[in-house]
């Protein structure tokens, strides 16, 4: 056992404790055991809260006289704890000298681009330049002649433009993406000391112990089973 979990406290700070009374219930690797007091006095300090784990030889509680100062005892326990070190305050670095910043360069004023001149067209009528044959074909096929782009002289619509005309079809709207609106709920279940030990021992048995496997080959013609090691 390297650590234990305080399952419950039967006393609280300020309670009178007698030798032999149960102070707390400690969950070990195999079972939950009662921890009895070895002294008479008053419970002055609880070092491990309920449900918390603590390594072996850590401070579980302090029992003394009512009003007794325990700061020195806690300091001694902290100094003797494994891995406890005395920290030295780091020196405060001197502030760096301020450097006068150069004035920011003034950006040149941004001028708006000159708009391109608009060339007015002389054709202000709704007349469509198309050959009589192109107009006839468009009328027979139900094609709006104004929607056809002309490739003839000066943009004139001819027969081939009507033959090659493809009516505009608006693209269909993409299907709305299916969103998963379901709520996933979970909760954290604390692992007991026994489960931790089982998992640790199982991993150790797999990765530290040697393994070997047996295979069986059966000769169906002679009905003889052989083993390979």
Descriptive overview:
This protein is of the alpha+beta class and about 230 residues long. Among the domains are: about 5-80, OB fold (Dihydrolipoamide Acetyltransferase, E2P), CATH 2.40.50; about 130-165, Dihydrolipoamide Transferase (Irregular), CATH 4.10.320. The protein is about 15% helix and about 20% strand. The protein has 4 helices and 9 strands. It has helices at about 70-80, 130-140, 160-165, 195-205, and strands at about 5-10, 15, 20-25, 30-35, 40-45, 55, 60-65, 215-220, 225-229. A 4-stranded antiparallel sheet has the order 4-3-1-6, with no helix packed on it. The protein is elongated.
Concise synopsis of the structure shown:
It contains 4 helices and 9 strands; from the N terminus they run E-E-E-E-E-E-E-H-H-H-H-E-E.
The strands making up the biggest β-sheet line up spatially as 4-3-1-6
Please give the share of residues in helix.
10-25%
Q: If you average the pLDDT, what whole number results? A: 74
Low-confidence stretches: 82-89, 116-124
Shape: elongated
Q: Please write the string of helix (H) and strand (E) elements.
A: EEEEEEEHHHHEE
**Sheet with most strands:** 4 strands, antiparallel
- Compute the gyration radius: what is it? 45 Å
Instruction: Give the class from helix and strand content and strand pairing.
Output: alpha+beta
CATH architecture of the domain at 3-80: Beta Barrel
CATH superfamily of the domain at 3-80: RNA polymerase II/Efflux pump adaptor protein, barrel-sandwich hybrid domain
